[in-house]
Amino acid sequence: MAAEPESLDLGDIFASAEPAVVPKVEFHFVDYERAAPNASLRLQMVKKHALWGDHLWNGGRWLARHLDAQPDLVKDKLVAELGAGAGLPSIVACSLGAKRVICTDFPDRELIDNIATNFTVNCPGSLESGQALAKVSENEND
Fold it and tell me: 5: cis peptide before it, omega within 30°?
């Protein structure tokens, strides 16, 4: 008995796909204790994000402790943090009196919005005053 030929029908491969359902962003929180007289920080973390914004890295914790121990490293200085995640070292630098802090990560709106939220909660007024900047570039030339 001969096998039936395989169908080459591809259907309508050029039809519009159903719009993707954008999943709701979930968060969890991490508390970071600073030495007195500074208060602890509460950082919002993006839960289950492919770009690892869900984890407070040991390197960020170490750098934050180092800055707290030596505030003159950032006081009245310009500070940039690349690959910031939740922005812990930048927030510490801002609270220690950095002149301006630019805090960024991969250009993903969820990650950058999360950094901005962490500044709003832990360094109130820093974004509005321009002391801190956490922004996704609106075009590639920014």
Answer: no
CA 99/CA 89 separation, integer angstroms: 14
As a whole number of angstroms, the distance between CA 129 and CA 84 comes to: 21
Q: Which token pair is 120?
A: 């709003």
Write down the residue that tokens 């301006």 correspond to.
100
Let me know: does 89 contact 67? Beta carbons within 8 Å.
Answer: yes
Report the alpha-carbon distance of residue 71 to residue 91 in Å, rounded. 13
Q: What is the pLDDT of residues 55-103, one digit of tens each?
A: 788 999 999 999 999 999 999 999 999 989 899 999 999 999 999 999 9
Helices 109-122, 88-95: inter-axial angle, 10-degree rounding: 30
Q: Output the six-digit token pair for 104.
A: 């960024």
The label of the residue with tokens 């993707």 reads 20
